[in-house]
Amino acid sequence: MSSSSYAAWAKFDVEKELERVDETEHREDQEKQQLKQVHAKENVETSAFQAAQQSADVLAAQAAVAALKAKKRKKKEPGETLPKANDLLAIVKMFYKDVYLGIGTCDLEEGRLAAASEAFKEVLVRDDVHLAAWIKRGEAFERMDAPLLAMLHFNRVVSLDSDHESGKEALERVKAKLLTKGDSSFGTIRLLP
């Protein structure tokens, strides 16, 4: 054995090397675990979204079939026409709105505020004057502590229906919160003397 290899071996700290290897393995295990958790979360979110979408599609199809059966059962009078494609599309659109409103309401009750907001947005994309969706999305933003966004939604309700009592109450509640506490996303609002 040469003296240079012995000198190199003498400088080599086995304990430090074992600690370094252990730390590396521990770090790799943590990264793998985090990656597994991210994949699991993505899989759950994807499957939940697909299940909701499939439920909406199934309900819409069932509604269309039920509407066709109802029209078929009805005896056609002379001069009467068959249901138009627009009628069926309106039925499907109505069921999509109802399904997304139901999903959003469940998410809101369960405290999944961002998911609720997205579901209500789907209703509003299909019907921008749907008061219940505006109110519930405003409630979601209010619970997320985003009073400015909530105020915009409640203001839309009042502008669509000036006699809407719960819309007025919600708008006043959020305005009062903004005046007393400010908007949490921008810090507090300071009122000048």
UniProtKB/TrEMBL annotation:
UniProt name for this protein: Uncharacterized protein
InterPro entries the record matches: TPR-like_helical_dom_sf
Coiled-coil stretches: 14-41
Lineage start: Eukaryota, Sar, Stramenopiles, Oomycota, Peronosporomycetes
Alphabetized Gene3D superfamilies for the sequence: Tetratricopeptide repeat domain (1.25.40.10)
Keywords noted in UniProt: Coiled coil
Source organism of the structure: Phytophthora kernoviae
SUPFAM superfamilies associated with the record: TPR-like
